């Protein structure tokens, strides 16, 4: 699929034609692990609801249901086959398995927060489900965190587009939200990577 087909204008046209199905399927596929612009799709749905072209509650329900279902698919994909794939990818990029294990351990310790708040972070929204499966996060805990995160994220995105979309152009809103998600991701990665780096440095000093 070309990038042109995923432009904001194209997404608006799809939402006009297929309505809630675009929101549901777009979010579901993104949360399964397919790199689709789910955040933008949700904002488009909320914007159209604010323009009285779609129903606010149905957009919210579609986004929430798609997020919950998609993350469940992603979780089981990660649980049953994600770790071997990650190890093979690590070999390609010359990342030692011990480093991957350290990252998995660090993610496991922050899994609940990652699943709930990861939806607000660029990329992590796509990979939180598979990573939770790879880390073998207990499924009941994942299910609860997944539902809380999906409802919180969908509520914020749809409501934001519903009201703010009346004040500023949709393109500007999408840009602002995207920039926030990238900054939040960088901060989250730093919070995970810094303890690993400090521990690695301390081990090197002891060995030295």
From TrEMBL:
Main location: membrane
Positions of the VTT domain: 36-160
Keywords, ordered alphabetically: Cell membrane, Membrane, Transmembrane, Transmembrane helix
PANTHER family, per the entry: ALKALINE PHOSPHATASE LIKE PROTEIN, UNDECAPRENYL PHOSPHATE TRANSPORTER A
Signal peptide: none
Topological type in the membrane: Multi-pass membrane protein
Descriptive protein name: DedA family protein
Record family assignment: Belongs to the DedA family.
Segments traversing the membrane: 73-93, 114-135, 141-164, 176-198
Superkingdom of this protein's organism: Bacteria
Keyword Nucleotidyltransferase attributed: no
GO cellular component entries: plasma membrane
Cited Pfam families: VTT_dom
Record flagged with keyword Membrane: yes
Subcellular location: Cell membrane
């Amino acid at each position: 699929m070309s990038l042109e087909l995923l432009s904001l204008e194209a997404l608006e046209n799809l939402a006009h034609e297929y309505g809630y199905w675009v929101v549901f399927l777009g979010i579901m596929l993104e949360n399964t692990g397919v790199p689709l612009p789910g955040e933008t799709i949700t904002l488009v749905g909320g914007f159209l609801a604010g323009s009285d072209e779609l129903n606010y509650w149905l957009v919210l329900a579609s986004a929430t249901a798609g997020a919950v279902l998609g993350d469940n698919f992603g979780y089981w994909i990660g649980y049953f086959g994600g770790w071997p794939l990650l190890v093979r990818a690590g070999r390609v990029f010359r990342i030692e398995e011990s480093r991957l294990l350290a990252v998995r351990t660090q993610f496991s310790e922050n899994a609940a927060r990652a699943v709930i708040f990861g939806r607000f972070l660029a990329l992590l929204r796509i990979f939180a489900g598979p990573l939770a499966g790879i880390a073998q996060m207990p499924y009941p805990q994942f299910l609860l965190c997944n539902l809380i995160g999906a409802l919180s994220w969908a509520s914020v995105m749809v409501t934001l587009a519903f009201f703010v979309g009346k004040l500023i152009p949709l393109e500007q809103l999408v840009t602002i939200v995207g920039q926030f998600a990238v900054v939040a991701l960088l901060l989250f990665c730093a919070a995970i990577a810094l303890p690993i780096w400090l521990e690695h440095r301390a081990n090197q000093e002891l060995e030295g």
